[in-house]
Specification:
With 434 residues, the chain is mainly β. Helices cover 6% and strands 40% of the residues. The longest helix is centred in the C-terminal third of the chain and has 12 residues. The structure holds zinc ion (ZN) (3 copies).
């Protein structure tokens, strides 16, 4: 070690008085110490008589140097440390940078000591060791983000029916976690949440410490619980019911098995053909008039009344259906022609004194009736055709005569006295006397 010694030589005459000018000597300090003059050795006796050469040495007390750490005073963070910022020679200073709410270390964040960047240890502690000069700490790149991250496209607390995705917006996005696991977005910025049995929690945090959490449930498919009938069951078609998903607007419609209500038939109606040869049964559904059924009957027939000379006979037709909803029907048709009379002319026969005669007439062998004319227009009784034995009155009657016959007889009366038979006159008089 090179020792630098300052020597001041002062020469006095022998016997002279020593004069001490009280000057204070100094000793240059170093990084570790500064020196404080603490006196002469031996002490200088002011005014003493110089009798011999003497060496006075200045003595100094070393005082350890302290260095000052100057901290930045800016908004957004604070420097935390223990001890104080006056550091003895070769001492250390440790500190952390703690951000205020909303502030964070940006891309260009740097902690510098006297202009040189230093790095923190794993615990975020910055250490300055072996301090032998004043230290000025500066901090750069502190950013501010007062906004909570925004989660888009999903709603907190909602249940989804299939894998769903969301996006995130934040100026200083730090992490996106699903159930505590960091996830990364796809190329379009979407984070996907796949179906799971349990609710899933999405947490988004930014570098400034702002964070937000959503809890959603993602089901694998829709949940249809409450089906409501569509009241659309038809006679032969099952009705349907529809449910809306418990969690979305999707609906599901399904058939209600065995819900067809069946036809509601009205009474069967029957239509006969005039001639009784055909009979049709039909019925219509009260639920839907388009629902109709028809059935054709098997017809059997038998004569139910024989024809007479003048009246038609009748046939009774029976309609039997093979369907169970149609009842047997019966129709009687007067379709057997009357046979007509089988007339035989009965010639007139003059009565004698002992035997009756008869007028000309026609007799039907089938019905046993007598007619005045060959066309069987006027029926007369058997008694009426009789002409009594001679000398008795004829009893030709007009009991069955019509108005025209009455007129005839009136004419006969008016013409009384002319050539008419007494029999006729007597007949009429008798008749009118009644
Ligand atoms: Zn759904
Ligand atoms: Zn019907
Ligand atoms: Zn007849």
């Amino acid at each position: 070690m090179l020792l630098q010694v300052q020597v001041k030589l002062i020469i006095y005459e022998y016997g002279a008085s020593l004069i001490y000018n009280r000057q204070t000597p100094s000793k240059e300090g170093d990084t570790q110490y500064r020196y404080e003059f603490s006196g002469w050795s031996p002490a200088i006796a002011d005014g003493a008589t110089v009798g011999s050469a003497a060496l006075y040495s200045a003595t100094f007390t070393p005082i350890l140097n302290y260095y000052t750490v100057t901290l930045p005073q800016e908004n957004g963070y604070s420097i935390n440390y223990t001890g104080n910022t006056s550091i003895p020679y070769n001492g250390d200073f440790s500190f952390t940078v703690d951000f205020d709410e909303g502030y964070y270390s940006g891309e260009n964040f740097a902690v510098k000591v006297n202009g040189t960047a230093i790095q923190s240890d794993d615990n975020g502690v910055f250490n300055i060791t072996g301090i032998t000069e004043d230290k000025q700490i500066t901090i750069e790149g502190v950013e501010y983000d007062g906004e909570i991250p925004v989660i888009k496209s999903i709603e907190d607390g909602k249940t989804y029916c299939e894998a769903t995705n969301f996006t995130v917006e934040d100026d200083s996005l730090d992490s996106v976690k699903i159930n505590g696991n960091i996830v990364t977005p796809d190329a379009d910025g979407f984070y996907i949440v796949i179906p799971a049995a349990e609710p899933q929690t999405i947490t988004v945090a930014d570098k400034a410490g702002n964070s937000i959490s959503y809890t959603i449930t993602v089901n694998d498919g829709h949940t249809f619980t409450n089906y409501v009938s569509n009241n659309d069951a038809a006679c032969t078609v099952d009705g349907t019911e529809t449910a809306k998903c418990d969690y979305c607007d999707t609906t599901d419609t399904k058939t209600i098995v065995d819900s067809a209500i069946g036809h509601n038939w009205n009474e069967a109606a029957y239509v006969w053909s005039e001639d009784g040869k055909f009979c049709t049964a039909s019925r219509t559904c009260r639920n839907d008039a388009n629902h109709k059924e028809e059935a054709t009957a098997v017809i059997t027939s038998e004569q139910s009344k024989a024809a007479t000379c003048t009246e038609k006979g009748e046939t009774t037709y029976s309609a039997v259906f093979t369907v169970d909803w149609a009842d047997e029907q019966i129709k009687t048709v007067a379709d057997i022609p009357a046979t007509g009379h089988a007339l035989e002319k009965v010639p007139a026969k003059e009565p004698t004194e002992t035997a009756e005669g008869n007028i000309e007439c026609w007799y039907c062998e089938i019905c046993g009736k007598y007619f005045k004319d060959e066309n069987a227009q006027t029926e007369i009784s058997k008694e009426q055709i009789v002409i009594p034995v001679n000398g008795t009155e004829s009893i030709i009657s007009t009991e069955t005569g019509d108005d025209s016959n009455i007129a005839l007889w009136i004419v006969v009366i008016l013409a009384a006295g002319t050539a008419i038979t007494g029999a006729v006159l007597c007949n009429r008089k008798r008749k009118y006397k009644r």
